[in-house]
Amino acid sequence: MSSTNRKVIITCAVTGAVHTPTMSEYLPITPDEIAEQSMEAVEAGAAILHLHARDPKDGRPSPEPALFNQFIPRIEEATDAVINITTGGSTRMTLEERLAYPLQAKPEMCSLNMGSMNFSIHPVARKISSWKYEWEQSYVEGMEDLIFRNTFADIKHILLELGEHGTRFELECYDVGHLYNLAYFVDEGLIKPPFFIQSIYGILGGVGPDPENLAMMRTVADRLFGRECYEFSILGAGRHQMQLLTMGAIMGGNVRVGLEDSIYLGKGTKAQSNAEQVRKIRRILEELSFEIATPAEAREILKLKGRDKVGF
Q1: What whole-number distance in Å separates Cα of residue 155 and Cα of residue 191?
Q2: Entry's InterPro entries (predicted)?
């Protein structure tokens, strides 16, 4: 069990590339909406913002640097949050597209999926009879026949290209094999401690949301790296969000919320903003006597290069 006086880092994943506008009217789509919800999430207690871009005309995921540039500088000016840019993008983007903005921005952090995988929410399409935009149905149903690609060569390329600028990573591990992939890159000298391992549960194609799996991932990470070498974080997809985050925090982990991961606040209740989810997990953590890390404390814990060394 973890000490209750440590600082817990809250990450907020603001919009992502999985949910579509039909699924929630509260999903931020435009640069203004993404900026405003990001700033509210930081005010609520998020230290790290995990960010994607969307086409403001119809909400489809976009890798366009021009779109990122419409909200990232605003967030950076208004908050002291750690800005974490996706290198995952979506299953339909090439590696070059996914890296277009990160290489320009040279952020303190980027996300990095630690392997190729089936990644899908296609069963959700069966529950939707009317779509807001024409692209959504084929996008969701098409996930059944797509993989998210991150080969060893892809991961090495991302580590070398962004590592040259001092960027560190949110290492997204969707299954136990991803922890072993991470260990390979540690052995190669391409990833150095302290690692920030984002363990992910409940995505179709990854490890399931069973509490036993959380314990397994924590145990394997301890065995591979030693607890002193990494920070553990927990992402529970959909309805599993709050339960797994609470369990993970008690086990010594940090937490991630946000409308990328779940569009709900509780059973049958949609979250009306990212900040609502941040406030909820913050209340739970503080009721358990945990302290919430500030952005400055998160930078120190994760040994980030600092906001004065980014390209935006």
Answers
A1: 11
A2: Aldolase_TIM (IPR013785), BKACE (IPR008567)
